[in-house]
Amino acid sequence: MICIKITSPAIRLLVLVTVVDMLSFSCTSKQHVDSGQATQWTGDSNIAKPDSIAISMADIGKFPYITPPEGYIYDRYAKNRNFAENFHFYRDSSIVTAGGKYFRVPVLKSGDLKYRKDTFSDSLVVAYYGNAIRQLGGVEVYAGDKPLKMLDMIDDDLGNQPVAGSYRQFIIRTPAGNAWFRLEYDYDSVRQVVYSVLFEGSVDEQVFFMPAGIMRIALERNGKVVLYVNFNKDQSILAPDGDAQVKEIARLMQMDTGLRFFMEAHTDSLGTPERDKRLSTDRVNTVIKRLESLGIKKYRLDGTGFGSERSLVLSDYDENKSKNRRIELIRTDINETGLREALNKDGKAVLHIRFETGKAALRPEEHEIVEEIAKLLNNDETLYLSIEGHTDDVGSSDSNNKLSLERAGTIRNELLDMGIAAKRLRIAGYGSMRPVVMNSSAENRAKNRRVEIVKIR
User: Fold this and answer.
1) Beta strands at 193-199 and 177-185: parallel, antiparallel or unpaired
2) Buried b / exposed e along 24-33 (16+ C-beta atoms within 10 A)
3) Alpha-carbon distance 159 to 378, whole Å?
4) Ranges of the chain with pLDDT below 70
5) Half-sphere exposure of 346 (CA within 13 A, CB side)
6) How many whole angstroms separate alpha carbon 167 and alpha carbon 155?
7) CA-to-CA separations, 263 to 24, 329, 331, 431, 444, in angstroms, rounded
8) Contacts with 89 (C-beta within 8 Å, 6 or more apart), sequence order
9) pLDDT digits (tens, 9 = 90+) for 216-240
C-alpha cells in the first residue's frame, strides 16, 4: 500500500490507496478512480434529500476544510464569498439551489522544483478529495458528466462560460449545517481540478462582533444598536458565534440594570415575505428566551420580526444580503432615571406595560415597572402624574374606553399600595382615540396598546 498524506490541519489523516488504484492514476485517464456508488435518491422530483443522510459528528475543521494534496496548490484566483447562491445537479435533469458561504478554486500543479518532474493527475486529485470527504462522514450524491442542458444555468465565476467535463458532488451533514463539496475535472483544454465547497450553516457570516462596552456607546449616541447575530441557515437556532453575541447583550444588561430593549429582527429576501417574517419573529423569540436563561428578567425584553420589509440596502449581492440579516436593539428604558429623562424632555413617558389579554390585571413580570415609577415619585415629592391608558382598535369604543381607564386605575392602585399619596395621581382612559400609529398591523396595534405617565407639575 502507498500512503498519501493529507496536509490539511483540519483533517490530519492518512488516506490509504491500494496499488491497484494507483495504477489508474495518469494524466490522460478519464476513469473515475473513487469507486463509491453515488447515492440513489427516491421520489418523483429526483432531487437529493439531505435529511436522509446521517449527521456526521466529525470535526471537519475550518472553512474551506481541505487543503490540496502534496505537490498541488490552489490557484491565486480563488473565489471566496461570504454568501452565494449556487446550483447543484442531481441525476442529469434535476437541479436545486443552495445558499451560504462559498469557496471555489482551481487545483494546480505546484511549481516547486521537487514536484516539477511529476505530471498533473486529475484522477489522483479527485481520489484524494473524495477519500478525505468520506473520512469526515461525507456521502457522494452525484458522479458523472455535467448535464449539458443545464450548463446555461451555472454561474461559472472562474471564466466567461461554463466548461463541460466530469462532475462529482458530496455532502457532509454537520450539526451546524450542510457542507456541499463539488469536484469539476477531466477537461480537454486545461490541466486542473476545480474544488468548490458551500456551507449552508453559519460561517463567518457575522459582519462583526460587538462587545458590551461598544454597544453601550452606540446606545448613548443613537438610542439603538444594530447587531449581526448568526443563526443556522433558515433556522431560528443560534449559531455558536451568535450565542456569544447574545451573551454580550446579557452582560450589557447586567452592567446597566435599567436597560430595556425592543428587538427588531430582519432577514434578506431569499424566501416569501410570509416566510421571512415568520423566521425573523422566531429568531427574536429565540434571543429573548436565551437572555431569560442568562438571568435577564422578562419585563425588560420585547420584540417582533419584520422579515425583509425593512431592508437597509438592496439584497442584490452577497454583502448586501449579509447587511440585511440583522437584529436591532432599540432602547426603551423604564427605570427611574429613564423615566425622569423622558418627563424632563417630553413631559411624558410612554410605557408598553403588558396586561392580561382583554383585562386590567398586570402580568406578573410587569410589577417591577410600577416599582420604578414609585421610586421616581418617592425621590421627587413635588412630582404629580396623570396615568393615561390607551388601547388598539380591536373591540367597541365603549369597551376600549372602559378597559383603558381600568388599566390606568390598576397602576394607580399599586402605587397607592406602595405609599404614594392619592392627590399626586390622576387617571384617564382614552381607548383607541389617540393612536400613535395606524392600526394597520399586529405590530402597530402593539405600539398603540400603551400607558403614558404625563407630568402635571
Assistant:
1) antiparallel
2) ebeeeeeebb
3) 73
4) 1-51, 82-83, 85, 87-97, 146-164, 188-189, 201-208, 270, 313-322, 333-334, 443
5) 10
6) 15
7) 60, 5, 9, 26, 14
8) 95, 142, 146, 147, 150, 167, 169
9) 887 877 778 888 888 887 788 998 8
Distance CA 101, CA 198 (A): 5
3's CB contacts (< 8 A; 6+ apart) are 14, 15, 16, 17
Per-residue pLDDT of 381-428, as tens digits, reads 999 999 999 999 999 999 999 999 999 999 999 999 999 999 999 999
Q: How would DSSP label each residue in 411-443?
A: HHHHHHHTT--GGGEEEEE-TTSS-SS-S-SHH
Please tell me the distance from the alpha carbon of residue 28 to that of residue 36, in angstroms, as a whole number: 21
CA 311 to chain centre: 15
Alpha carbons within 13 angstroms on the beta-carbon side of residue 248 total 20
Count Cβ neighbours within 10 Å for each residue of 238-253 and write b for 16 or more, e otherwise.
bbebbbebbebbbebb
Residue with cell 496548490: 73
Could you give the angle at which helices 336-346 and 367-378 cross, rounded to 10 degrees? 70
Can you spell out the DSSP letters for 321-350?
HHHHSEEEEEE---SHHHHHHHHHHHSEEE
Contact 219, 328 (CB under 8 A): no
Query: CB-hemisphere CA count at 13 Å for 303?
Result: 30
> Look-up: residue for cell 500512503?
3
Q: How high is the pLDDT of residue 314?
A: 67
Q: Are 385 and 426 in contact (CB under 8 A)?
A: yes
**Cell matching residue 381:** 415629592
If you count them, how many residues does the chain have?
457
Q: Strand 261-266 to strand 301-307: parallel, antiparallel, or no bridges (unpaired)?
A: parallel
Return the C-alpha cell found at 278.
415568520
Closest by Cα among 364, 363, 359 to 406: 359
Which pLDDT score is estimated for 367? 83
